[in-house]
Amino acid sequence: MTLPLLDRSESWPQNNEAAEIALRDALVGLSSLDPDAARSKILELEQNHGERRSWVWASLGSAPLAKALQYLTKMAEVTERMTWGTSIPEIMHNYANDGWVADLAVLDALASVERLDDVRAVQSAARTVYRPWLERIVETFQDAVVASEPDGYQAASPPDVADGMCLLFVDGLRFDLARRLGTMLEQQGIEAGVEPRLTALPSVTATAKPAVSPAASALAAGEDFDTVVQANGSKVTAQLLRRVVGDAGFQILGTEELGNIAGRAWSEFGSIDAYGHEHGWRVAHHAAAELRGLVERITVLLEHGWQKVVVVTDHGWLLMPGGLPKAELPEHLTELRKGRCARLKEGSRPDQQVLSWHWDRTVRIAVAPGIHCYEAGKEYEHGGLSPQECVIPILSATGRAAQATVSVSEVRWRRLRCNITIEGSAAGARVDIRTKGGDPATTLAMGGKELGDQGEVFLLVEDAEHEDTAALVVVVGSDGIVLAQTSTIVGGS
User: Which of 174, 218, 281, 385 is the most buried (most CB within 10 A)?
Assistant: First the structure.
């Protein structure tokens, strides 16, 4: 029963506590309703409980269900209005524009609660409204893939990477999380764009990570879902993949390494996928910390001087709190079975959808129907066919230097004295020499000098110990934003 909150005082904690209990009971009760009735009930609950998010008790963490309700309301709205189309491009477009919002709303609702009874209430709403919607869109996508065979599904090629660019691989960065990451970067003044692509099939790391890496052209099909190095037949592990990427002309950066911005780089970050497999729905809590860490990593790379950071991933995933349904697939038909896919033995004919393996079109892969898994009790899984697993993001992040109206045309050193020529002008701009482009605390030239009308600045690096140090010549606007930069070596020719 919904409490008449409007005529109750927000000053008393027992009023908020009673309202949380009433909301919890109402959310649990959604399981007895059909999806449309449950959506209407969620909207009604929002009308009655939404105001509690402005109460002091919410700021103290005592209204988690009221907080979760705003996300459940978004879930209800998106799942009611969503249309998909019938072809892979239509579904991909609609998911990238709108469908991901429902996935993120479920994550946000789960991330709002911690107590077991609150979690069960949110799970009740998700399973009643989100699950049937998810089943429909997954089945629609699978039908579209069947209709497009044999060549309608086109996996993304590795992105083109020029000098000055860093590829950052994140395992299991689902499309909705990438969209949130883009928003978080833009809030930091970093330009970020997210585009949808299709992952290699099946959507598992062993297949899809090599396919999106710069090493892809040097690899070939191996056993199970693994790849091998064409030159010697060695099975590709995470360590070997980095070595082959390095052989392709990329610097391999550790989690805190910044590299030489004059070249190209490959780096890796995060543990979203590993955490999801281990902890199920709790990945909703973990993902928030992962995204904050990604923002920090991308920001540091751009401030170091990389012109662009391109974030790539291998696959997304399905998440259903309370568990995904189980599908049966006899083991004698398979060479290898994963949560949502299996490599079939030659000649076997399962009563399920069969696809070709990305790395060898003669190898047949069974994929679980709908949102089913071949293993029971899975809340988090991937490897099958769904927009959530297969529509992957490519996120490109560029520093504010991309908006420059000035450029560094020439840098000439005479020992520790530097003569810098700038083309263009910007009111109040300064020229500096720094080890990190966006960090004024790393100046080697006492904070630099203002850029005058002549377009030339002479700077002195006072400390001789900095000779031969890699640095950046930067032009900084009056607001501290880097307008242009170029790499240099202190005292270099």
Answer: 174
Comparing 165-321+379-399 with 404-489, is the CATH topology the same?
Answer: no
Percentage of the chain modeled with pLDDT above 70: 96
Helix/strand/coil for 55: coil
pLDDT in tens, 220-246: 999 999 999 999 999 999 999 999 999
Domain ranges of the chain: 5-148, 165-321+379-399, 404-489
C-alpha closest to that of 199 among 19, 426, 45, 389 = 389
Q: In this predicted structure, what is the pLDDT of residue 10?
A: 66
pLDDT tens digits, 434-448: 998 878 889 999 999
pTM of the model: 0.82
Over residues 302-319, the pLDDT tens digits come to 988 899 999 999 999 999
Domain spanning 165-321+379-399: which CATH class is it, in words? Answer: alpha beta
What are the helix (H) ranges across 310-453? 387-390
477 pLDDT tier (thresholds 50, 70, 90): confident
- In sequence order, what are the residues at sequence separation of 6 or more whose Cβ sits closer than 8 angstroms to the Cβ of residue 256? none
Nearest one of 429, 427, 221, 182 to 311, comparing CA atoms: 182
Contacts of 69 (CB under 8 A, 6+ apart): 23, 42, 45, 46, 49, 50, 109
Sign for the CA dihedral angle at 74, 80, 81, 82 comes to positive
What is the distance in angstroms between the CA of the first residue and the CA of the last residue of the chain? 78
The H-assigned helical ranges of 167-311 are: 175-187, 205-212, 238-247, 272-279, 283-304
The 10 Å CB-count burial string (b at 16+, else e) for 412-439 is ebeebebebebebebeebbbbbbbbbbe
d(CA 170, CA 53): 34
Its CATH architecture, for the domain 404-489, is Sandwich (2.60)
> Does the pLDDT at position 381 exceed 70?
yes
d(CA 287, CA 284): 5
